[in-house]
Design a protein that fits this description.
The chain contains 11 helices and 8 strands. It is of the alpha/beta class. The protein has 2 domains: 4-159 and 319-334, 3-Layer(aba) Sandwich (Rossmann fold), CATH 3.40.50; 163-312, Rossmann fold, CATH 3.40.50.1400. β5 (184-190), α8 and β6 form a beta-alpha-beta unit. α4 packs across α11 (320-334), α7 runs antiparallel to α11 (320-334) and α9 packs parallel to α10 (288-305). The longest helix is centred in the middle third of the chain and has 18 residues, at 163-180. It starts with a strand and ends with a helix.
Amino acid sequence: MSTTGVLLVQLGTPDSPRVGDVRRYLREFLGDPRVMDMPAPIRLLVLYGIILPFRPRRSAEAYEKIWTADGSPLLLHTRSLADALAARLGVVVEVGMRYGSPPIGAALDRLAEAGVDRIVVVPLFPQYSSAATGSAVAKVFEELSARPVIPAVSVIGDFHAHPGFVDAVAEVARGVLDAFGPDHVLFSYHGLPERQLDDPGGRCLREGCCDEVRGENRFCYRAQCHATTAAVAAALDLPPGSYGTSFQSRMAGQRWIEPYTDRTLVELYEAGVRRLAVLTPSFVADCLETLEEIGIRAREQWLDLGGEDLLLVPCVNDTEVWVEGLARMVEGVLR
C-alpha cells in the first residue's frame, strides 16, 4: 500500500538573532538567483559589496525584537501547524525551510525513513512567485534528483483564492476587527520587483489588468494578491472603499510593485483614517515581515503621523480553521 507524506515548505529563518546567524541566512537567501534575479557578477557584487557588510546587523536587531524564548515565531508556528495537520490527516508531515534550518533535504530524509512513497509538497506561499514558490519547488526536485528512489510527488502551487485559505483568513480576522472597530482595513503583501511579475509585454501594470485572475495572468503575483484581497473582503462583508491593497518590503534602487505600504499609510492618514487594521495574507505564519515590519515599524509610523491606533491582524498560523482548510487542500490532491 502507498504511504503518503506531506512536506510543508517555508521561506526560512536564521537559527538565532545573532549577527553571524543572520548573515549566513541572508547570504543563502539573497544568493538565490530566483530571489535576486540579475547576472551573477552583479548579484555577487551587490550581495557581498553592499548588503552583507551592513544589513545583517540591522536585520539582527529586528529579529531580536520578535524572537521568543522558544525561538523563531515562523518556525514555531510552522512546526505546530505540521503537528496539527498530521493529527488531522493521519499521515507523516515534515517541515523544510528553503533557506536555513531545518533544510528541505533533511525533511525529505525523514519522510524516506518513515517509508513514504508519495509526497504532497505544500510551499506555504498563498500567491505564486518565482522567488518563493518557484524556488521552493525547484529546491525540492533538486534534492530528490540526487536520490536513487524518487517518490511520486504532487505539488500545491498556490492557493490565493482557495476557500480553505480565504475562510481561515476571514475567520481569524473577523473577531479582532469587530473588537477593534477600524476606519479602514489594509491588505499588505510582500513586495516583488516589477520585473518578476509574470507579465509578458508589460501588460500587468495597465489600469484594470489585475482586477481578476485570467488565463493570461494566471501566475501574476500582483493579480493573485488583488484576488486574495477581493475574496477575503467579500468573506468579511467589507463595503467598497473601506479596504485597500499595498505592498511592503521593497529594496532601494529598483522598481517594485506599487502602491507601497509606507506611502499608503500617509495617504490614508491624510484621507482621515485614524484607526487602521492591517492584514498580511501573503504570509500564513507570523514572522519578521508581519510582527516587526508591520506590528512595530508601521505602527510607529502610523502613530507618528497622528493616527489613533494600528492593529496587526494575526496570520492564520496554526489555528484550527487553517489546519482544516489546509487539510482540505491536501485531500483534494490525494483524491
